[in-house]
Write a structure and sequence with these properties.
Length: 275
């Protein structure tokens, strides 16, 4: 009964399968809602050609059209939302704002993949971490998270502690303190945090955010969503049931889990709760 709001399409160049196969997989897994959230075209956001991992701007209309077609075709079986994942950078806030002002979006996910202009999250980036101070990287990364949260641009923040992807943990830095600080910023930010299960497919082998981080968020009633960051149909709702069970064991109440329609949040409990 959960939703999967983080699903890519082959347009980004690093995902496979037809969009329809993702929908079919979601129906098999008895999800009541999914949302496509492919990477927003980076060519119009000023990213350099060698860092672009998204569709081109000229493909965006097709993306909307494909989602609409599937929504219609499967309307009796599943609800399909129109989402997008946008790369946040402080210096492109105005550009991002322009593209978020489109009333076709059900939700907009903000995420951070770049530090100092470098995509640290690409597969095989272990070297990037080997050459740098992990503490410094964590400080830079979470500074960006705070800026993203205060920007007011997004409905959801993706994989909030992605910096741990390759299993590199800080030496001196107190993560508990950082989590507390971020949870405080988020408690007044009108932004949901995604429980992103892709971490279970990455070297770190846990979801984003970590359980300790989730506890801080729950303490402050920060709204949550679920996403698998699917890059192939088999990834849809990946590991959702285990993670959800674990969260319930920690005392997570379903009244802080949200969905989005035309950028307005709604509580999943209003749909009859979660099994
Ligand atoms: Zn991402
Ligand atoms: Zn993604």
């Amino acid at each position: 009964m959960l939703f999967d709001y983080h699903i890519h399409t082959s347009r980004c160049g690093h995902a496979n399968g037809k969009m329809e196969d993702y929908v079919k997989k979601a129906i098999d897994k008895e999800l009541v809602e999914i949302g496509f959230s492919d990477h927003f075209p980076m060519d119009v956001l000023g990213f350099s050609d060698d860092t672009i991992c998204s569709m081109k701007y000229e493909e965006l209309e097709e993306y909307f059209a494909d989602i609409n077609e599937l929504r219609d075709k499967y309307k009796d079986k599943i609800k399909i939302r129109t989402g997008i994942e946008m790369d946040y950078q402080e210096d492109i806030e105005d550009m991002l704002r322009k593209y978020t002002n489109d009333n076709r979006w059900d939700y907009i996910i903000g995420s951070i993949h770049f530090i100092d202009g470098y995509d640290f999250s690409k597969p095989g980036q272990e070297e990037f971490f080997a050459d740098r101070s992990i503490d410094d990287l964590y400080i830079k990364y979470f500074e960006k998270v705070k800026n993203l949260a205060s920007s007011g641009l997004f409905d959801i923040i993706a994989h909030i502690d992605l910096i741990k992807k390759f299993g590199c943990h800080p030496e001196k830095l107190s993560l508990d303190e950082i989590y507390r600080e971020i949870a405080k910023v988020l408690s007044g930010a009108d932004l949901a945090v995604e429980i992103n299960t892709a971490g279970w497919r990455h070297p770190v082998k846990e979801q984003y955010p970590s359980l300790t981080f989730i506890k801080e968020l729950v303490k402050r009633n920060v709204p949550l969503t679920f996403g698998s960051d699917a890059h192939s149909p088999d990834d849809v709702a990946y590991n959702f049931s285990n993670v959800f069970k674990e969260l319930k064991r920690l005392g997570l109440e379903t009244n802080i889990i949200y969905g989005f329609s035309k950028r307005k949040p709604f509580c999943v409990e209003d749909l009859g709760g979660i099994r």
